[in-house]
TrEMBL record:
Protein name, as recorded: Mad3/BUB1 homology region 1
Cellular localization per UniProt: Chromosome, Centromere, Kinetochore; Nucleus
SMART domains, A to Z: Mad3_BUB1_I
Transmembrane stretches, start-end: none
């Protein structure tokens, strides 16, 4: 019998009698692509959770364990457990979405180290910021924040991502300035930045330029049929002649006297005076009393009417009013709170789950810097 290891992958799968391994073919349209690619075996195991509720619960428990490991880390590189957690979530939740919690983890990670000088020039930390920007509605806010706080300014990845984002918004001038700023600062690797700039320059030259409209010369251009060619001197001569004729015609119109038409035919009877006599009420507003006839109701005293009440109702209301608590919006309170320690954010991240996780992800996508202190935001 031929050895299974020498067979092609499809035949080896059929011979092994495995019940799993084709999840990729069933859910591949829902898998979010990644730049570094995906491991097919890990991907198939992760896609089982689409139909297996027990496996889905185990993934959520594993995510909580990794988040707890971040809090318990005592080493010299506190960013490393965050990166391991992000990588695991990307591979274990290939469909992405708000339920994966990836956007919340991105935000918690970048907010934990944004004021740390240890990671301002760390490429790993910058990549987390760039991945976070890709999941937000408007990434320009994040790039402005990185520029204002001096994060990742020595890496070409920042300038390339920022410029490509501005190019996608059709802001070609800003994209060109960002590329020039990165080249001027000699961001590393410089060869990668220069190659991206050359490609951008080629794309910008191929774009159709918008037509330049000159409103001052539109009225002086001669009217001609399709296919005729006029020289520059002839066009100016015809435009000058046309303007002279229009000026003379305007002067003649100013001096002309307009005659008023008068009907001198006395055979046609006029009924206008009779109409004014008979229907004079139509053309008059009437007195003030007639105009305010809707407001002629006589006011009465409302205190004469009493509403029957049950005995003891006032005492109950007074007791209930004493227990009323002042409402505090948690979202506003969290946005104004300055996070000095990463442990409080980790506790919050552990508690967020299900519908709350989805809601928090949507809020972060709309406003990615909503939980940052006000003094750190770009102005």
């Amino acid at each position: 019998m031929e050895d299974v290891t020498t067979l092609d992958p499809e035949t080896a799968f059929l011979v092994s009698n495995k019940r799993t391994g084709n999840e990729w073919e069933l859910f591949k349209e829902n898998v979010r692509p990644m730049k570094r690619g995906r491991n097919v075996n890990v991907l198939n195991e992760a896609l089982k959770s689409q139909t297996d509720n027990h496996l889905k619960k185990s993934l959520i428990e594993e995510r909580r364990r990794l988040i707890a490991a971040i809090d318990e880390y005592k080493g010299e590189d506190p960013l490393q457990p965050w990166l391991e957690c992000i990588k695991w979530v990307q591979e274990s939740f290939p469909t992405g979405g708000d339920c994966s919690g990836l956007v919340v983890i991105y935000e918690q990670c970048v907010r934990t180290f944004w004021h740390s000088d240890q990671y301002k020039d760390d490429l790993r930390y910058l990549k987390v910021w760039l991945e976070y920007a890709e999941n937000c509605a408007d990434a320009e806010v994040i790039y402005s924040f990185l520029h204002a706080n001096g994060i990742g300014q020595e890496h070409s990845s920042y300038y390339i991502s920022y410029a490509l984002h501005m190019e996608s918004k059709n802001k070609m001038k800003s994209a060109n300035e960002i590329f020039n700023l990165g080249i001027e600062r000699k961001a590393q690797p410089l060869e990668k930045l220069e190659a991206a700039f050359r490609k951008f320059f080629t794309r910008s030259m191929r774009r159709p330029k918008p037509p330049i409209e000159d409103e001052t010369t539109d009225g002086c251009l001669p009217v001609r049929s399709f296919g005729t060619v006029l020289a520059t001197g002839e066009a100016r001569r015809q435009g000058k002649q046309k303007s002279d004729v229009a000026g003379k015609k305007q002067k003649l119109d100013r001096g002309a006297v307009v005659s008023i038409y008068k009907d001198t035919d006395a055979s046609i009877p006029s009924h206008q005076p009779d109409l004014l006599k008979n229907d004079m009420k139509i053309y008059t507003l009437g007195t003030r009393a007639e105009r305010n006839k809707e407001n002629t109701a006589i006011p009465t005293k409302w205190t004469s009417t009493k509403i029957p009440q049950r005995p003891g109702s006032r005492t109950v209301a007074a007791a209930a009013s004493a227990c009323i608590e002042v409402f505090v919006d948690e979202e506003c309170a969290e946005s104004e709170r300055t996070v000095k320690d990463g442990k409080s954010s980790l506790i919050q991240l552990r508690r967020v789950d299900g519908a709350d996780l989805k809601k928090e992800s949507e809020l972060l996508k709309a406003n990615p810097l909503r939980n940052f202190p006000q003094h750190s935001l770009p102005r």
